[in-house]
Amino acid sequence: MDTNNEADVPADAALAAAAAPQDAPDTLSFTFRKPVEHAGKTYAAISVDRAPMWGEMKGAYKSGSIEASTWLASTLGGIPIPALNKLDARDGALIDKFFSSFT
Q1: How many CB atoms lie within 10 A of CB 11?
Q2: Whole-prediction pTM value?
Q3: Between 46 and 55, the higher pLDDT residue
Q4: Residue ranges per domain, the chain?
């Protein structure tokens, strides 16, 4: 089971109640099912400490949901896109669900 590093809560529990943008959580933090490596660095978790700004959302969502979420996760979470592309699909889906909750 995925857990939030800080509170030992299921990773998607914070997202479960996000039915509309005003209900969306402002942060995302969880450990990946499997760490990914890119350019000699290992990425085991993501931590996004703020909600995206409108301008970031506008620019990102021109390309589609998954591409937008990948770009936002890279920009706000500090993980290179090639590393994010190696994530387990279930981890990617949690990231996409988080950023999609703002639209």
Answers
A1: 23
A2: 0.74
A3: 46
A4: 13-100
